[in-house]
Amino acid sequence: MGSGVLTCYLHRIRSSRRLEQETHRNVGLMWLLRRLTPDFKTIAGFRRDHPKALKGVCREFILLCRRLDLFRGELLAIDGSKFRAVNARHRSYTPARLAKLQRDIARTIARSRRPKWRIVVSLPLHQPCAITRPRAQ
After folding, report:
1. pLDDT for 72-105, tens place per residue?
2. Is the peptide bond between 124 and the residue preceding it cis, with omega within 30 degrees of 0?
3. How many other CB atoms sit within 10 Å of the CB of residue 43?
């Protein structure tokens, strides 16, 4: 059954109910399974109970394809992930905009290092503190 599941995986059929339909429709799959037609619960149980065996079959299939030079090595990975892009103009960063942001950040840091307020504490400590502006330099 592992080779039948692998065949369906290659044709992007993942659902156990669709796999069951393929065992009745696909002649090549019928030949591979020797005319066995397992129901979807059997297929789902097989996949649940034998995940390491299925991974091993997939790994051996890839190695076989490499030995037969069916892979050129150009394709590194196939990923079925889908990401929704949520990006507005104010969130886009071009090299010019990044340079401007870095300059603005540098200016802000430079300004923050100059003291704007000076706290003068006079003794005794029970009296309130006097807050004054810095003296002109």
Report:
1. 766 566 667 777 777 777 777 788 888 898 898 8
2. yes
3. 22
